[in-house]
Hints:
Helix content is 41%, strand content 24%. The protein is built from nine helices and eleven strands. The protein starts with a strand and ends with a strand. (3R)-3-hydroxy-3-methyl-5-(phosphonooxy)pentanoic acid binds next to helix 4 and helix 5.
Amino acid sequence: MKASAPGKIILFGEHAVVYKRPALAVPVNQVKADVEVSESNQPGVQIHAPNIGLTSDLASLPPDHPIASVILKTIQALGVSPLPNLSLTIESTIPVAAGLGSGAAVSVALIRALSTFFSHPLIDGQINELAFEIEKFHHITPSGIDNTVITYNMPVYYMKEKPIETFKPGKPFTIVIGDTGIPAPTKESVGDVRRLWLRDQPRFEAIFDEVAQISTMARHFIVSGRPELLGELMDHNHEFLQQLTVSSPELDALVETARKAGAFGAKLSGGGRGGNMIALADPASAESVAGALMSAGAKRTIITEIN
Ligand code: PMV
């Protein structure tokens, strides 16, 4: 039994989403996590995850290990007992700690593969809930946006504690993703924003309100087929992220490079400090924007069409 899940990128609203403002995220199908489950003649559950250099028996891993915890929670949710001998192979092309949702994608692919293998296929809502449980187990206050966009594999307008809204672009558009290569310490940046917010709530609530307006307008432009208007919104969102102190010299430099190379707008994406930035580009100039980002020090670029 095989299952896979895509990567994701946040277009608008990161950090503000933790404070119940809307954010937009889209799947990135150029990268994905694949899981294969099969019966095995070796005892126990053999896990093979070559990308992270892991070959182990489930029983030898601590229960809070990121992969072990997904397997244990899924098996518990499915009510499978006793567990047959299994072999699990996990392969992923999603860079780790880069804001592309690698952890949530592995969780979603594992939950899907295991639940189908045990003839107990779960609907997206159940997969999403379980994946969110796992996110909460590993991060302090995840908004839930990663597991949602990855489970549904659709653009998502996400607000904490609100029903999930997926949406369709009225016209496709192209995003260039540039990776600083610096691990994005999401927990740290979320914690720092929390400390700033605690010291001056009126100021930070006002920033979150501005970002909320940007996300709402962005969805409107995407759905109504006017994605070219997103560039300016990206630039504004980036300024607010700078005020939240989550940008970095490397992110600012790549954002500036993308704009100079002809992108309509650019911003950091995700937790910040490291990880990725994104730029809105004409399909014809996406390659040259990506090339400029590489020359300016990006470790990797991905060109993705949102449709
Ligand atoms: O770095 P990423 O892509 O995992 O995104 C973090 C997004 C935040 O809004 C900063 C945190 C969250 O849980 O939504």
